[in-house]
Write a structure and sequence with these properties.
This protein has about 750 residues and is mostly beta strands. It has three helices and 44 strands. It has a 29-stranded mixed beta sheet that branches.
Length: about 750
C-alpha cells in the first residue's frame, strides 16, 4: 500500500518540529508518496520504493528520494524519471533544485521533440539550457538509433541551439565524420540542404542551401552552388515580416553566377549573345500601411532573357517573363482606389508601361438603399508599349482616360426567376490614335481572327499618328436563370457512393449589346488589347478588360447546368456536374461565325478516391476548332495512385494542334519501398517529351529516392539523374537532387 508522506505540518510534528507547512520559494507545497519506508530525520525527508514527488509543474519518480528544505534540493536515485512542463528526463541519479529548477544527473537521457539527448552527466546551466558530458544527440526515436552525434560536451539551449565540441557523426556504430566544433540551430527556420545534381546543360553539380534566422522577423537563405559546366554561383534570399502584427511581408531574391559556358542551349529556340556574368535580383513586398491602405512591389532585374530558364526552371515554367510593378491601394466597402507604376526593367522583354495608371473601382451597391444597383470604373493611364531592345518593332504610347458606369436592376419574379437587366455607358479618351489613311484591311477567312488586327509597327513601317479621339460605348443586356430540382431518397448504392440523390437543373442566359461610335478599333493604339484564347470571352463590362479592343457586338449566351448531389460523411457533395453552353453571335467581331463552339464541362466524383474531369468544346453548329481536356485520377488503395490526362486541340488559328498524353503513377510496395513514374507523350509529333522514374526507400529516419528524367526539347535531349536523401525529423537537413536551386526537392520538378 502506498504511504503518503506530505511535507505538511502534520508530518513535521511527528519529529517534534514547530507547526507550519513546508513550501518551495514559489509557495508550491511538495508532495511525496511512496510504497516503502518514509521518515523525516535531521531535517531531511526520505522516501523509498516507488517514490512519486509533485512540486509545481514538475513530477519526479524514482526508487529513492531525499529532500533537504535548507538547500531546496531533491536527491533521487534508481530509475529516475523527471517530467517538467513538456520536458522528460531519465537518469540513474539526479538532483533537482526546487528553487532554481536546475537538474544535475548522471547517465541521463532527455527528449525534446523531435530530438533526443543522453550523456554520462547532465547539469543545467540556465533556465532553458544544460551541459551534457560525453553525450549523444539524435532524432531517431528508437532504443538503437540509425545515426547519432557523439560529443565530448554539448550545450543544449531548448528551442534555440546546440553547441557541440569534439563531435563525431555515427551511422549505426560506424564513425563517418569528425568536427572539433559544430553549431546546430534548433530554430524551425534553420535548415541545411545539400543537392548533388546532374543535368546535361549543367554537368555534375552541387547545390547547397543554408536557411537561418537573422532576427525574429528576418529569415535568410544562403546558396553556394557549383556546376561542372557552368562554374560557381552564390545567392542570398530573405523573408521579412514587419509592421503591425507582422502582417507586412517582403522577400528578397539574389543570385549570381560567373557562367563559363553561357552559350549552352538545350532548347530548339535560338539565342543571341549571353553575358558570362549572369544574375537575378528580385524584390516582392506587401506593406499594410493601415487596415484599408496597402502597397505592393514586384520587381525583378535579370542579366539576360535566359537566366531564369537556365537556373530557375520551375519559376520559368510558371512565369517566363517576370513583371515589374509598384502599386498603392486604398480599399473601402464601396470602392477601391489603386495607383500603379509598371515599367520595363529588362529591356530584352516586351512590356506595356503604365507610368502611372490610377483606377477608381466602385463596387456594385444599391443606390440610396433602393432596388437599383450601380457599379463603375474610372481610370487614367500614361501608357507606352516598349518592345524588346534590338527588335525591329517600333515603340508607341498614348494617354488614356477611361470611365465606365452601369446600372442594374436585380430581381426575382414569380418566386423562382432571377432576372438582372443592365444598361451602361463607357467613354474612353486617347490623346493620339493611329492614322490608318488608305490602309486596306485584308479579310481573314478564319472567323476567329478579328479583322481589326494589324501587324505591329516596325522601324521600316512606323506608326503614323492621328489626332486625339473620344470613343463612346453604350451597353445593355440582361441575365436570367432559375432552378428546378427533384429528390430521389430511395437511390442507394455503396458501390458508386450514393446516399439519396438530388437533381438540380439551372438554365441560364446572358444577352449583351454594345454599340460604338467608332467603326474600327484598329485606329486605337493597342495596350490592353485582344489576346488569343481558346475560351469564350466575357460579354459583360467590367469583366471584359481588353479596353483598347472594344468594338460593337451583339451576343447571346445560353446554357444549362445539371448537378447531381448526394450525402457523404454528413455533408452534401456534388456527385456529378455538367455545364453546357454556347454563344449565338448576331454581331461579334471576335468570332464572326454565327454560333460559337458547344461547350461541355463535366466533373464526376462517384467515390472519394475517383475524380473525372472533362472540359470540351466542339464546332457543333458552325466552323470552329476542337478542344477536349480530360483528367482521370484514382486512388483505389492507400498505396496506389494513378492519373491519366489528355489535352487535345485541333485547328485553332492561334495555337498549334496538340494531342498531349500525360500518365503518372505511384505505388507503395510496402512500408519501406515505393516507385513513381510519369510519362508525357505528344501524339501529333510522335514525341515522348518527358520521362520520369523514381524509386523511394524509407530508412526509418530518412527518406531516400533515386530516379531519372529525360526531356526531349524538339530534338535536343536533356538528361538528369535524381537522388534525394532527406532527414524526416528535425533538425532540418536535406540531401537531395533537383534542377532548380529554388525548389524544395526533386518531386517539385
Amino acid at each position: 500500500m502506498r504511504t503518503p508522506v506530505r511535507l505538511f505540518f502534520a508530518l513535521i510534528l511527528t519529529v517534534g518540529v514547530a507547526e507550519g507547512q513546508i513550501k518551495t520559494p514559489e509557495g508550491a507545497p511538495i508532495e511525496i508518496t511512496s510504497t516503502g519506508e518514509t521518515n523525516y530525520e535531521a531535517g531531511l525527508a526520505t522516501a523509498r520504493d516507488n517514490v512519486a514527488i509533485h512540486v509545481g509543474d514538475t513530477d519526479i519518480y524514482s526508487d529513492f528520494a531525499q529532500y533537504n528544505p535548507k538547500t531546496h534540493e531533491i536527491l533521487t536515485e534508481g530509475h529516475v524519471r523527471i517530467y517538467r512542463d513538456i520536458s522528460f528526463y531519465i537518469a540513474d541519479r539526479a538532483i533537482y533544485n526546487t528553487e532554481t529548477k536546475q537538474i544535475r544527473a548522471t547517465n541521463m537521457r532527455t527528449a525534446q521533440d523531435p530530438f533526443f539527448v543522453s550523456g554520462e552527466g547532465i547539469s543545467e546551466i540556465s533556465e532553458n539550457g544544460y551541459l551534457v558530458n560525453n553525450g549523444s544527440f539524435t532524432t531517431h526515436d528508437a532504443p538503437v538509433s540509425d545515426f547519432h552525434l557523439r560529443a565530448r560536451t554539448m550545450r543544449v539551449y531548448q528551442n534555440d541551439r546546440v553547441i557541440f565540441r569534439n563531435v563525431t557523426f555515427y551511422v549505426g556504430k560506424v564513425p563517418v565524420f569528425w568536427w572539433p566544433y559544430m553549431y546546430q540551430s534548433l530554430d524551425q527556420d534553420f535548415s541545411f540542404n545539400i543537392s548533388p545534381a546532374f543535368l546535361t546543360s549543367w554537368g555534375p553539380s552541387l547545390l547547397t542551401q543554408v536557411a537561418f534566422p537573422i532576427t525574429d522577423h528576418i529569415k535568410g537563405r544562403l546558396r553556394l552552388d557549383y556546376r561542372g559546366r557552368r562554374g560557381p554561383a552564390i545567392g542570398f534570399e530573405s523573408d521579412i515580416s514587419y509592421g503591425k502584427g507582422d502582417h507586412s511581408m517582403a522577400k528578397l531574391k539574389t543570385y549570381y553566377i560567373q557562367d563559363q559556358n553561357p552559350l549552352i542551349n538545350r532548347t530548339a529556340v535560338s539565342r543571341g549573345s549571353v553575358p558570362t556574368g549572369r544574375y537575378r535580383l528580385g524584390v516582392e513586398d506587401r506593406t499594410n500601411f493601415s487596415d484599408d491602405i496597402y502597397g505592393i512591389a514586384d520587381i525583378t532585374k535579370l542579366s539576360d532573357a535566359f537566366v531564369m530558364e537556365d537556373f530557375y526552371q520551375n519559376e520559368f515554367r510558371i512565369n517566363p517573363v517576370p513583371d515589374n510593378v509598384i502599386a498603392l491601394t486604398k480599399t473601402d466597402p464601396f470602392f477601391t482606389l489603386t495607383g500603379i507604376a509598371r515599367f520595363q526593367a529588362n529591356q530584352f522583354f516586351e512590356q506595356t508601361e503604365r507610368l502611372p495608371e490610377v483606377v477608381l473601382d466602385i463596387k456594385r451597391h444599391a443606390l440610396f438603399g433602393g432596388p437599383i444597383f450601380y457599379e463603375g470604373e474610372t481610370g487614367f493611364a500614361d501608357l507606352r508599349r516598349e518592345f524588346a531592345k534590338d527588335s525591329d518593332f517600333q515603340n508607341y504610347g498614348a494617354i488614356r482616360l477611361d470611365t465606365f458606369h452601369q446600372l442594374l436592376y436585380p430581381n426575382t419574379y414569380f418566386g423562382w426567376l432571377s432576372f438582372v437587366p443592365r444598361v451602361g455607358f463607357r467613354g474612353t479618351y486617347y490623346d493620339k490614335t493611329r492614322d490608318l489613311g488608305k490602309t486596306i484591311f485584308p479579310q481573314n477567312d478564319d472567323p476567329l481572327v478579328p479583322n481589326f488586327l494589324l501587324p505591329e509597327p516596325t522601324l521600316e513601317a512606323p506608326i503614323k499618328y492621328g489626332s486625339e479621339t473620344l470613343r463612346i460605348n453604350f451597353n445593355a443586356g440582361a441575365e436570367a436563370s432559375f432552378k428546378i430540382s427533384r429528390t430521389w431518397e430511395d437511390v442507394q448504392s455503396r458501390a458508386i457512393g450514393l446516399d439519396g440523390l438530388l437533381h438540380v437543373i439551372q438554365p441560364f442566359t446572358n444577352f449583351s449589346y454594345v454599340t460604338s461610335n467608332r467603326s474600327n478599333p484598329a485606329s486605337i493604339l493597342q495596350f490592353d488589347r485582344f489576346e488569343p484564347s481558346t475560351q469564350l470571352r466575357p460579354i459583360d463590362f467590367p469583366q471584359f478588360t481588353s479596353i483598347d479592343s472594344i468594338d460593337g457586338f451583339t451576343v447571346w449566351r445560353a446554357g444549362v447546368r445539371n448537378r447531381l448531389e448526394t450525402r457523404r460523411d454528413d455533408q452534401t457533395i456534388t456527385w456529378f456536374e455538367l455545364d453546357t453552353f454556347f454563344d449565338v453571335n448576331f454581331d461579334n467581331p471576335y468570332d464572326r461565325s454565327s454560333y460559337s463552339n458547344l461547350f461541355n464541362n463535366i466533373r464526376f466524383s462517384p467515390l472519394p478516391w475517383i475524380n473525372f474531369f472533362v472540359e470540351s468544346q466542339v464546332p457543333a453548329f458552325d466552323k470552329g476548332f476542337t478542344e477536349v481536356n480530360t483528367t482521370v485520377g484514382v486512388q483505389p488503395t492507400a498505396n496506389i495512385q494513378l492519373s491519366v490526362a489528355h489535352r487535345f486541340l485541333n485547328e485553332n488559328p492561334f495555337f498549334p494542334s496538340s494531342s498531349l498524353i500525360v500518365v503518372g503513377g505511384y505505388y507503395r510496395l510496402n512500408d519501406n519501398w515505393a516507385v513513381g513514374i510519369q510519362e508525357q507523350y505528344e501524339e501529333k509529333t510522335s514525341t515522348l517529351e518527358q520521362q520520369r522514374y523514381a524509386l523511394y526507400r524509407d530508412l526509418t529516419n530518412w527518406v531516400a529516392s533515386i530516379g531519372a528524367v529525360v526531356r526531349d526539347n524538339a530534338g535536343k535531349n536533356e538528361y538528369g539523374v535524381l537522388f534525394t536523401f532527406t532527414l524526416k525529423a528535425f533538425p532540418k537537413f536535406g540531401f537531395d537532387l533537383s534542377f532548380d536551386p529554388g525548389s524544395t526537392g526533386a518531386q517539385n520538378q
